[in-house]
């Protein structure tokens, strides 16, 4: 079965949400007083450049390492995952939680 043609509007929205997630993560890192290299070390990454990619919206925090990222940044893992779900997968977030905003949103996510 052929894949549907990507929707340019949806692609632009996804890109915008990833940048928003990156800004939120950068703010959380700065609030924690950490450098990108320190976050990478705490999370077990080989290169800090992945943290830079995530913060710029190019990459995303992998699901399997979200708890480690939350711990490294001093954030509650559940709220951290919920905030990222809202930004990375807004339709899934809406299906699970409706229009309810996570606590992290109120804190600037």
According to DSSP, the number of beta strands is 0
Query: Domains counted in the coordinates: how many?
Result: 1
By DSSP (H or I, 4+ residues per run), the number of helices equals 7
In the CATH hierarchy, what is the superfamily? lambda repressor-like DNA-binding domains
Please trace the helix and strand order, writing H or E for each element. HHHHHHH
Question: Helix amount, in percent?
Answer: 55-70%
At a glance:
This is Helix-turn-helix domain-containing protein. The chain has seven helices and no strands.
Structure, described:
The chain is mainly alpha-helical and 109 residues long. It has a single domain (19-106), classed as 434 Repressor (Amino-terminal Domain) (Orthogonal Bundle). Helices cover 65% and strands 0% of the residues. It is built from seven helices and no strands. It has helices at residues 8-31, 36-43, 49-55, 66-73, 77-88, 90-97, 103-106. Helix 1 (8-31) packs antiparallel against helix 5 and helix 2 (36-43) packs across helix 3. The model is unreliable at 103-108 (pLDDT under 50).
Produce the secondary structure layout:
Elements: H1 8-31, H2 36-43, H3 49-55, H4 66-73, H5 77-88, H6 90-97, H7 103-106
Helix pairs in contact: 1-5, 2-3, 4-5, 5-6
Keywords, please?
434 Repressor (Amino-terminal Domain), Lambda_DNA-bd_dom_sf, Helix-turn-helix domain-containing protein, Cro/C1-type_HTH, 109 residues
């Amino acid at each position: 079965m052929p894949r549907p043609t990507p929707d340019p509007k949806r692609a632009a929205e996804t890109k915008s949400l990833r940048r928003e997630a990156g800004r939120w993560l950068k703010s959380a890192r700065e609030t924690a007083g950490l450098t990108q290299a320190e976050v990478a070390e705490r999370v077990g990454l080989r290169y800090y450049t992945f943290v830079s990619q995530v913060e710029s919206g190019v990459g995303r925090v992998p699901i399997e390492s979200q708890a480690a990222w939350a711990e490294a940044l001093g954030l509650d893992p559940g709220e951290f995952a919920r905030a990222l779900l809202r930004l990375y997968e807004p339709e899934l977030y809406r299906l699970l939680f409706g229009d309810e905003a996570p606590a992290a949103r109120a804190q600037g996510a």
